[in-house]
Structures are given as C-alpha cells and as structure tokens.
Amino acid sequence: MIFASATFLIFFATVIIFHWYIIPIFIPSWQRLRVLHIFLITASYIFYMSWQWQFGLLLAFVTIWDYSSARILGYLDTASGEDARRNNRLRKIVIVCSILMNLGILGYFKYTDFFIASFVDLINTIAPGTFSPGDRSSLLLNLILPLGISFFTFHSMNYTIDVYRRVYPSEKSLLRFALYVSFFPVLLAGPIITAREFLPQLRRMPVMDLHRMKIAARWFLLGYFKKTVIADNIGPIVDIIYRNSSAYGAAGHWLGAYGFWAQAYCDFSGYSDMAWGTAMFLGYNLPENFRLPYLSLSVTEHWQRWHMSLIKWIRDYLYIPLGGNRVSFFRHKLNIFLTMFLAGLWHGANWTFVVWGSIHGTILAVESAYRELKEKYRKKRGEFIVQNAASEKSIRAIPAVVFAFLATTFCNVYFGTMFRSQSIGESWMILKRMLGFDSPASAPLQPAMYRPVIFAVLTIYVGHLLGYWIFEKKSWKWNPPVWLELAVLPIVILVLIQLGATDVAPFIYFVF
Q1: Which long-range contacts (CB under 8 A, 24 or more apart) does 9-17 make?
Q2: For residue 423, pLDDT beyond 80
Q3: Burial of 65 (C-beta count, 10 Å sphere; 0-12/13-18/19+)
Q4: What per-residue string of b and e applies to 270-287 under the rule 16 or more CB within 10 Å gives b?
Q5: What is the predicted pLDDT for the residue at 389?
Q6: d(Cα 241, Cα 261) in Å, to the nearest integer?
Q7: Which of 41, 267, 309, 471 has minimal Cβ neighbours within 10 Å of its Cβ?
Q8: Of 60, 34, 283, whose CA–CA distance to 156 is shortest?
Q9: 383 near 316, Cβ under 8 Å?
Q10: Which residues have CB under 8 Å from 502's CB, separation 6+?
Q11: What φ, ψ does residue 409 adopt, rounded to 5°?
Q12: Backbone angles phi, psi at 142, to 5 degrees
C-alpha cells in the first residue's frame, strides 16, 4: 500500500474508525490500551505484508530477537559486586549478538549481491577472463529486498544499544515494543524513530484533539501534493532519460538530473509529511525529518535539515562512538568522512553511492576544518571580531546561502546521476556530458518534458521561501475556523486528485 493510493486511504479510514470509535466504545477502559496496541500491530503487519507476506515473518523475528536481547540486558543489570563484573562481560556478548544479527540480516538482503559482483569484477580486473558474464550472473543470489529493511532494523537496533548504554530501560511489554518496531506510518521509509522518542507515547491512551487533526490533515495533504502532483508527474520524464542515457547530451542530462533531484526531494519529504500527518491522526508524534534544506548556510547545515532522523541516528550511534569531536584534529575529520561514507553506502548497494558518500564526507570534513581554523583566527583578533560579528554575519549571509545552495544542489543533481546509473562508468559518462566534455548527437527533447520539471523546481524554490516566512520568521499565522477548513478540505482533495499523476509510483526510499 502506498500512502497516496486509494487502497491506503480505505485502509487508513478503517484504522481511524476502529482507533477512535469502535475500540473506545466497546472495550472497557482497563483493557483499552492493550487492545489498541494489538489492533495497531495487526494493522501494521497487514500493511507491511500486503507486498510480500513472507517478510512479515522477518519483521517478527527481528522484533522478538531484540526484545529478548534487551530483556536479558535488563536482567543482567540487576546484579551487584562480583556478579556485576561477570555480567558486564555477558552484556557485551548479548549486545554484540544483537547488533550482528541486525547487521547480518541487513547485509544479507541488501549487500550480498553487491559484494559478490564486486569480488568477481576485482578478480576479472586482476586476471581478465576468469569469469564470463554468464558466470557472474549465475553467482548472484538475486535476493528480493524486504521493503524498509534499513528502517526497521535501525529502529530495533538503536533500542538495544540504548538499553546496553543504560540510557533507556528494557521494555517489559512485548506488545509495546512490537508496535514501536512495526508502526506502519514509519515502517517503510522513516522517519527513523528511537525508543526514547516513541515508547513513552505508548504508555498512555492517545487523546483525540480537533486542532491536532486539522494540523495532521494539512501535513498529509502537503505530502500528497509533493508526491502525486510533483514527484509522480516528473518521474516518467526522468525514466525516459535514464533508461537510455547514452542517447542524450548535456541538455537532456541536466534536465534528467534536475528532474530527479526534484523528484527525490518531493517524493521523500512528501512521504515524511504524510507519515507525520498519519501518525498525528492516530495521536502520536514523530521526529522532524526535513526542515527547508535549501535555505542552509553551508553543506553541513544542509545535512542538519535533510533526512534529519538519519543524520541524528548516525551521529548518536556511529559518529559519537567513533570519538566524535573529542579526538585529534585529523581523527575528527576522518570521523566525519567515515560517517558520511557509510551513510552513502546505507543509501544503496552500489559503488555510485560509495562515491556519493565520499564526496559529501570530504565536503563536510573540509567545512569543519575551515570553521575550526577560522575560529582560531577570530580568537587572535579578539574584540574586533566580537564587535563586528553581527554586521559580518549579515553581509555574508546571502553569499553563504547561495554557495551552500549551489554546492548541495550540484551534489544532489550528481546524486541523481549516481542513483539512476547502473555503474560508475555510466555515471562518469553522464557527468562528462553535463559539463560539456562529451557532446554526442542527442535525442530531441520535447517541450512537454521541460514544463513539469521547470514547474517542480520553481515550486520547490517558492515553497522554501514561503516556509522560511511562515516557519522560521513566524511572520504569518494562518488559523481559519475549523468549519471553514473542513468545508474546503473536500475541494482541495478533488483538485489534488485532478492534478496528480494517473499512476502512483512506489516511494523511492522504499528500496532502502
């Protein structure tokens, strides 16, 4: 089920009716929360298993494994004295087994064929002709990737790590933990939630709030607009260009890259908006995932505004354990690079993602070094900088925004070539053509291919300016009467359906 599909809307309407009306009316108050959790778990598994029912078993296995691991960790924490020292060793074994199981499942489904293909290519590079194309194909397992596997394994894994660190107690209720792992609004493409953020919400009965429902409807419709009106309308154009990339020149590839940049942003942020609205309809809060990323003053800030839940996850569970900024200058820059390198690999099992992560890791490391060196220089200048800091910031703000926008846009445009390319060679060919180093005769571009992409790019720019005005400057507060908004809502839905694409495509991040 896709959020923007009629099937999901029927499914979700049924969930809403049971959630807010049938369960509260027919279930006694002392059993209501437990029954609600059972119902939401059932709904989440139906939602997930509607693609491939077998992977529901995988989701259940991950849930039971990490629930049991955390309960063992909690039990081992009750000892004292010599038993506590012995139990600390056992705790390390338990958390290592938990992490290895999660990473093993993720690695098996997502990266097995990637490593096999890379190994075969390496052998053929050293000893050409060792493996024929037929041999290479026969060695691949061609595994079906479970939808959202990177997300639900990260949800489950951060919980056991937090229990091991003693920053969150082990959850006694298997129902609560199972709902945390399988909660359908975030199950397939995030935002990545932590146990500390979500499990406490499950200890109380959610309360219906008309104001929250109104806000939830706004966010869901905003995400629906991004997905169906923008992303799905330009998706076929992007597909045409990348399906036959060798047939297009510079203009075609710039159009395709900008089109995919707009498609990826609207598709993923649209999913996040709909997930946020869906969870709010049910009475739960999710972490923010996008915050106007193209208003950033640097590439570093861009990553603090884009896929925020992933960046927070890799900061807490990768960057800080590596030492964060509490190490030497060069080790700190290496930590930044490694974090983004692995974030690139997380995005997909292809060398193009490794290159993309390496590019961003290098940029972030250079920006960090520049900030630290500038700070040392400022300390030497002392009071002069303190007195002129405000004017300096105001003067340099616009160039900084422009530079960050150009840098992040180019990186994300190039990300489009990498995401859609089948190999480094194809990605390199596309980049050369984009920069004018290779100018073959190219297939003609029809005007109908330009218009949706131009509309999408302009909409993103205008949307960011409006978002800055409304959310960052707080210059406009629109709060019409509830009756008026409810009356206009059906009209808005009908307009969006008419403007939306005929076929609703799966969300891009489902494959992660």
Answers
A1: 11/43, 11/46, 11/47, 12/278, 12/281, 15/40, 15/43, 15/282, 16/281, 16/282
A2: no
A3: middle
A4: bbbbbbbbbbbbbbbebb
A5: 42
A6: 14
A7: 471
A8: 60
A9: no
A10: none
A11: -65, -45
A12: 50, 50
Mapped onto helix, strand or coil, the DSSP state of residue 438 is coil
In eight-state DSSP terms, residue 293 is G
How many whole angstroms separate alpha carbon 357 and alpha carbon 344? 4
Give the lowest-confidence range in 222-226, 284-288, 406-410. Answer: 406-410
Of 277, 308, 275, 276, residue with least CA distance to 290: 308
Q: What DSSP element (H or E) covers 237?
A: helix 232-243
Residues 490, 219 contacting (CB under 8 angstroms): no
Q: Output DSSP code: residue 229.
A: I
437 to 15, 241, 252, 434: CA distances (angstroms) = 55, 19, 14, 8
Average pLDDT over residues 138-143: 84
Residues 6+ apart with CB under 8 A from 458: none
Higher confidence at residue 53 or residue 484? 53
Q: What are 364-369's contacts with CB under 8 Å, separation 24+? A: 364/299, 364/300, 364/303, 364/336, 364/337, 364/340, 365/333, 365/334, 365/336, 365/337, 367/298, 367/299, 367/300, 368/300, 368/332, 368/333, 368/336, 369/329, 369/333
Contact yes or no for 267/508 (Cβ under 8 A): yes
User: Considering only CA atoms, which of 505, 512, 416 is closest in space to residue 189?
Assistant: 512
Give the number of other Cβ atoms within 10 Å of residue 265's Cβ.
22
Q: How far is CA 429 from the centre of its chain?
A: 28
Catalytic residues: 347
For the chain, how long is the longest CA-to-CA vector?
77
Give the tokens for residue 371.
């900030």
**What is the length of the chain?**
512
Cβ-based neighbour number of residue 328 at 10 Å: 9
Containing H/E element for 377? helix 351-381
Distances (CA, A) of 479 to 362, 482, 485: 44, 8, 9
Residue 120: its pLDDT value, please?
A: 87
Q: What whole-number distance in Å separates Cα of residue 283 and Cα of residue 206?
A: 5
For range 387-410, the mean pLDDT: 58
